[in-house]
Specification:
Layout: H1 2-26, E1 39-41, H2 46-51, H3 55-64, E2 67-80, E3 87-91, E4 97-102, E5 117-129, H4 131-140, H5 145-149, E6 155-168
Parallel strand pairs: 4-6
Antiparallel strand pairs: 1-6, 2-3, 2-5, 3-4, 5-6
């Protein structure tokens, strides 16, 4: 009887340890160097790569319409969520940046993606982001407390929902 109890306790211990390790792995960005040709989510096709528009052209399209679907955009990654790799920011032509989330949180990206040129495939919308959400993303980016506290107003910005991200030259 003692052997049975010890066996059950041992199995439960292994299960808890395994579950704990999975939980830790899911809370950090995936490993990887984000090399040219690497993709995350859905692979971006060659035709999408060649048809990818600049961030400036995306901004122009969003002046006429608040939403653009099935579009490919090429840009420079300026930041990556350090907590999970669940969002990135892309540099706009005017020096500002816009926010990119992964569709349905179906994939994450490594922090090595920062500083790389990418092609995003997905949809874009111009919307107002609340103060709470802006502060949440600043915390994810591990910004200083003073910078987080300085966020006091909502911000109108481009939000991109990516189905795929590919590293390009």
């Amino acid at each position: 009887m003692k052997r049975l109890i010890y066996s059950v306790i041992l199995c439960i211990s292994f299960a808890v340890a395994s579950f704990s390790q999975e939980a830790v792995e899911k809370k950090s960005p995936p490993a990887g160097n984000a090399l040219v040709g690497d993709y995350y989510g859905k692979d971006v096709s060659k035709s999408s790569e060649s048809k990818a528009i600049s961030v400036g052209k995306l901004e122009d399209k969003l002046k006429n319409s608040n939403k653009v679907e099935n579009i490919a955009v090429k840009g420079l990654v300026t930041d990556v969520c350090k907590k999970r790799g669940c969002w990135v920011t892309i540099q706009a032509d005017n020096g500002a940046s816009f926010f990119v989330k992964m569709k349905d949180y179906a994939f994450f990206v490594p922090t090595a993606l920062k500083g790389k040129n990418v092609v995003l495939e997905g949809s874009a919308v111009k919307e107002i982001t609340s103060v709470d959400e802006l502060k949440h993303y600043a915390k994810d980016a591990k910004k200083p407390k003073a910078e987080i506290d300085a966020i006091i107003a909502p911000k109108e910005e481009i939000r991109f929902m990516a189905s795929g991200i590919k590293v390009v030259n």
